[in-house]
């Protein structure tokens, strides 16, 4: 399902800016911002999908439901792309200086576009929240194959993306956008059918209540008990075996929340635990809340990397439209440029999982080869390098335009599009480290009752990155006097913008190091019961993980 669904999603992520600009008559800046807002929503609403999955539906049902919503969105976009009256008159073939004369989409046309877009965004967000957790749930807690699953999940993600940015982008360029959206519709439909075929085989989670409600209860009870003395020993705190047979031992961070688990005593000195969840919480519930708080600095310190990714997905595609796109005698659509980092990822993911991880595991004894936060850090360093390389390549591209007197020309520059592959390749490696590192970190560190929500939180890094991207572009334009304010990249200062992003990425990495050093990995005590048939007794076993 991931391969097919992502084939549809990524093909649009890399090429919709061209559809907005060339077919909906949006300006270059509006096209870029519309795409980044769409992408940001696709990842942010994953929080809703995660809550639905953990609270009401199983992960399987969540994937099917939201997949159907995504299907409706692609169907709406297909209908609009097919009928000319649902789009503004074409405005292609004009000189760059005349593009402001194009007729804008009317309110009805815009309504159809944004309805389709955000149905896709809402649908894919639920799939993104529940699908990784559904796959990881099929492995036992201590099974080392669960760590490999996330790498192979990324490989499926990448394989689908490769097909999307080549085959589907080729269809949109040569056969029309209605055909491209139509193929996306069929792909999502088939992905839902394929997932449903395995319904009887899956190990499904049973929702045990809202994790968000449990977090709110902790804060509410802690505030209610704020005048009580700080508990000194863990025996003073309330704990029972959780609904997921998982107990989180008390930690010494955010100790003010421990007041939510203080046991109340009656007048005769006996302990009373027959209180509602709004009067007393368990230690596990308190620690569940602490985990979310500890995760926040990590997620915030990885946001800027996704801001850089958003810039590559928008401005790099526009750069490619000004360059020679013939590769080995074949004309390569600019929207297919992301195939370069995807191919790098497709090659290196198996090498990482089958070669690097086993060697690293023998050296340091860590099942995943390196810890999640170390893996994320490597990705952040590579993303900063990628931005610096992007600045150098853009400087070279503009110099070629000036040397050949083609600053205002619509003809392709005598510079091959593969020059953009340098920045994209490095960022592809960065994504390989950070993407899986984040998803696995939030899945493994989340408590048993909020695995889908934890996975959804990892996608929030991408969401905030895309939203921040729009803000960064607007702020830079205002402060710089219009570095990116023209519809002509040959006159813009995109190279300055890339260098600015590189410098900010270095600062962001420093912040991440501080946050990662402060973070404490969770410790879990898992309760399970084994039947002793010889004595007819239940033997409770407590394992510290």
TrEMBL record:
It comes from the Eukaryota. The keyword Transmembrane applies. GO terms for cellular component: membrane. GO terms for molecular function: transmembrane transporter activity. The keyword Membrane applies. It is found in: Membrane. Its main location: membrane. InterPro entries: MFS_trans_sf, POT_fam. Keywords: Membrane, Transmembrane, Transmembrane helix. It is a multi-pass membrane protein. The chain crosses the membrane at residues 7-26, 38-57, 64-83, 110-131, 152-173, 179-198, 298-317, 337-360, 372-393, 422-443, 455-476, 496-519. Belongs to the major facilitator superfamily. Proton-dependent oligopeptide transporter (POT/PTR) (TC 2.A.17) family. This is Major facilitator superfamily (MFS) profile domain-containing protein. It comes from Gossypium mustelinum. The lineage of its organism: Eukaryota, Viridiplantae, Streptophyta, Embryophyta, Tracheophyta.
């Amino acid at each position: 399902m991931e391969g097919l669904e992502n084939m549809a999603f990524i093909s649009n992520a890399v090429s919709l800016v061209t559809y907005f600009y060339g077919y909906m008559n949006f300006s270059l800046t509006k096209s870029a911002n519309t795409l980044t807002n769409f992408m940001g929503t696709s990842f942010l609403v994953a929080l809703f999908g995660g809550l639905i999955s953990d609270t009401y539906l199983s992960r399987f049902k969540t994937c099917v439901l939201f997949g159907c919503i995504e299907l409706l969105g692609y169907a709406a976009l297909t209908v609009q792309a097919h009928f000319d009256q649902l789009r503004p008159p074409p405005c292609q073939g004009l000189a760059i200086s005349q593009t402001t004369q194009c007729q804008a989409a009317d309110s009805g046309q815009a309504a159809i576009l944004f309805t389709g877009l955000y149905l896709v965004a809402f649908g894919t967000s639920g799939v993104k929240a529940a699908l990784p957790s559904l796959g990881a749930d099929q492995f036992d807690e201590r099974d080392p194959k669960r760590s490999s699953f996330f790498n192979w999940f990324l490989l499926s993600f990448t394989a689908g993306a490769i097909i999307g940015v080549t085959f589907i982008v080729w269809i949109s360029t040569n056969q029309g956008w209605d055909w491209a959206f139509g193929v996306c519709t069929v792909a999502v439909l088939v992905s839902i059918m394929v997932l449903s075929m395995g319904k009887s085989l899956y190990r499904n989670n049973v929702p045990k209540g809202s994790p968000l409600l449990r977090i709110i209860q902790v804060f509410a009870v802690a505030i209610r008990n704020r005048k009580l003395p700080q508990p000194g020993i863990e025996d003073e705190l309330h704990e029972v075996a959780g609904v997921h047979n998982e107990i989180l031992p008390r930690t010494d961070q955010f100790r003010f929340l421990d007041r939510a688990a203080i046991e109340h005593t009656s007048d005769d000195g006996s302990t009373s635990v027959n209180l509602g969840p709004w009067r007393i919480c368990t230690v596990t519930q308190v620690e569940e809340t602490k985990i979310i708080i500890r995760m926040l600095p990590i997620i915030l310190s990885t946001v800027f990397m996704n801001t850089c990714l958003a810039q590559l997905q928008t401005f790099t595609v526009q750069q490619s439209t000004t360059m020679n796109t013939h590769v080995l005698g074949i004309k390569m659509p600019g929207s297919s440029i992301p195939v370069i980092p995807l191919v790098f990822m497709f090659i290196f993911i198996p090498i990482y999982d089958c070669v690097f991880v086993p060697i690293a595991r023998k050296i340091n004894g860590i099942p995943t080869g390196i810890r999640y936060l170390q893996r994320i850090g490597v990705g952040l360093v590579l993303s900063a390098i990628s931005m610096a390389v992007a600045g150098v390549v853009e400087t070279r591209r503009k110099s070629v335009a000036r040397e050949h007197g083609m600053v205002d020309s619509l003809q392709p520059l005598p510079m091959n599009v593969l020059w953009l592959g340098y920045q994209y390749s490095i960022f592809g490696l960065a994504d390989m480290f950070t993407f899986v590192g984040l998803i696995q970190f939030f899945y493994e560190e989340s408590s048993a009752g909020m695995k889908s929500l934890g996975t959804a939180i990892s996608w929030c890094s991408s969401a905030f990155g895309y939203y921040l991207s729009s803000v960064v572009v607007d702020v830079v334009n205002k402060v710089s006097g219009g570095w990116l304010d023209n519809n002509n990249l040959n006159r813009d200062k995109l190279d300055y913008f890339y260098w600015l992003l590189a410098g900010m990425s270095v600062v962001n990495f420093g912040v991440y190091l501080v946050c990662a050093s402060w973070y404490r990995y969770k410790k879990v005590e898992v309760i399970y019961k084994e039947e002793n048939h010889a004595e007819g007794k239940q033997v409770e076993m407590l394992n510290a993980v």
